Amino acid sequence: MRELDVACRASSLLVIAYPVAVHYGVITGRFLPAIVALAVLAGVLAGWRAQGFRYLPALLAATLIILPGLMLQDRFELLIWPPLLFYFGFATVFALSLLPEREPLVTRFARLLDGEPDMAVRRYTRNVTLAWALFLSLLGVISVLLACCASRQWWSLFTNLLGYLLVLLFFLAEFVLRRRRFPQRAQYSFIDFLRAMARLGSRGGWK
Questions:
Q1: What number of other Cβ atoms are within 10 A of residue 56's Cβ?
Q2: In this structure, what is the dihedral angle of CA atoms 46, 77, 94, 39, given to the nearest 10 degrees?
Q3: How would residue 78 be classed by pLDDT, with cut points 50, 70 and 90?
Q4: C-alpha distances in Å from residue 204, one per residue of 8, 43, 110, 130
Q5: Residue 193's CB: how many other CB atoms inside 10 A?
Q6: Could you tell me the pLDDT band of residue 71, with boundaries at 50, 70 and 90?
Q7: Residues near 166 by Cβ (< 8 Å), separated by ≥ 6?
């Protein structure tokens, strides 16, 4: 369990460090920190198991990232894909959960965090799920447009810094709105909420 806690904290730090390192690379032309951060993140995620951390998959995943990364680190177009996978990938996850006979993703989180939701909470969380899908898709589209029409610096500033800050602000705004609408359910701070979401992710709450 201690190894899993360390892996959870390490992955959280690396998720923050990677886009910052990419932006540093775009400005300076030095992408080694970004490659290392991505390789270590891939290793942590590959080795992360509910039963304990597995070092062989972690080492294999890190190697598969760092070797091609060192050979292709001057290819700007390769930098575009990780954030797009994040934006459009999570937008797809939210959108697919809105299909008939499926539970909206935010409804699932609300149930796991606060217990069985009533109809008002179900309607609210379904709308929030749709909002997340649209919001993340919009960020992805803006990132593509900047990559095609703007300088690398402007693309990187939005995609690797401002975009993720907007995601965090969206989290915060939705949390504040939820506490005002359903004060009897959200009996925790925003930091505790983020920690609970991370724990749910490690236990398969996104599936």
A1: 9
A2: 20
A3: low
A4: 13, 18, 14, 21
A5: 19
A6: low
A7: 139
